[in-house]
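Researcher: We're teaching a course module on how sequence relates to structure. For the next exercise, students receive a sequence and then see the predicted structure as tokens, so they can try to spot secondary structure elements on their own. Here is the exercise chain.
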Amino acid sequence: WIDQPVGTGPFVMTEYQIGQTLKLKPNDNYWGEKAKVDGIIMNLAGGVSMAMYENDEVDITGVGLADLERVKDPNDPLNKDLVNVPPQFSLNYIGFNVNMPPFDDVNFRKALSHAVDKEIIADKIYSGLTKPAFSIIPPGFPGYSPNIEGLSFNEELAKEYLAKSKYADPASRPRIIVTIPGTGGSPGLDTEVISDMWKETLGVEVEIQQVEWATYLQDMNRKRLQLWAGSGWQADYADPQDFIDVLFYSKSDVNHGNYSNSEVDDLILEARTEIDNNRRFLLYNQAEQMIVDDAAIFPLWFDTDGYALVKPWVKGYEFTPIIVPKFKDVEIN
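Model: And here is the predicted structure for the students to work with:
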């Protein structure tokens, strides 16, 4: 389907290079009002997006923390292009491959989870522009429950779990490599700070390895990564299945960490056929609590209000809280 997609939307795909580019053109057979642009090019390869925006290589880009203060200055030429972006229904997390040592030990995963003070990172590094996540389903999303009990920062508890782990002795602990997408630049500050917290609190050292985006995706999809950061999940549709089932059902292709819990699977399968939404959401919440208790992943951040730059000649583009962008009403003026 990826190579020859079939759909009824206003665009059709003309080219897709994994980790590089995705190109669309208007669908001549679209049943509704036709698209107003000749095509869409999505850059998937990364790069310095702000520089690309300033060089007119891209028309839309998000604004990172490093550039935010500059572009919010009314005297900066980019300020006139600045727009507010509503929170996305997304979860940023660090992934554990539970089939690979030392992450095959739930106590070791819990030790790492309790050893990181996400509140400090959100406040000091992200200046409050991100919200620490201790669960899976984002706030405001269908099925979200504030009653999920996460693995919060607790140094003593982290040390207790490490002591109970079969990898408590550093001599028996395998080499740990966290893989992130990148091309040789500095890794994300949060990755570095989290690594420092693991070392300072638990004496657990990790190596940070950068790989090209296409390689990162390929290795993640083939479930080759031991530990990975710079990853996340944004909702495709407004249902908790898009997080709990897609990411954690044992037979899901997107279950990149090989997580498997038969009780979670039973709840997911029951939820698939439950027609009462309240009952269905309860089933997903029960599964979510088990996933969190198993430290299947290390949740990092939920999204908050953000900022983006949009070229003045781009009209009609609206940011949505789900990952599927809406280009039908976009026009170049």
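Model: If you want an answer key for the exercise: The radius of gyration is 21 Å. The longest helix spans residues 277-293.
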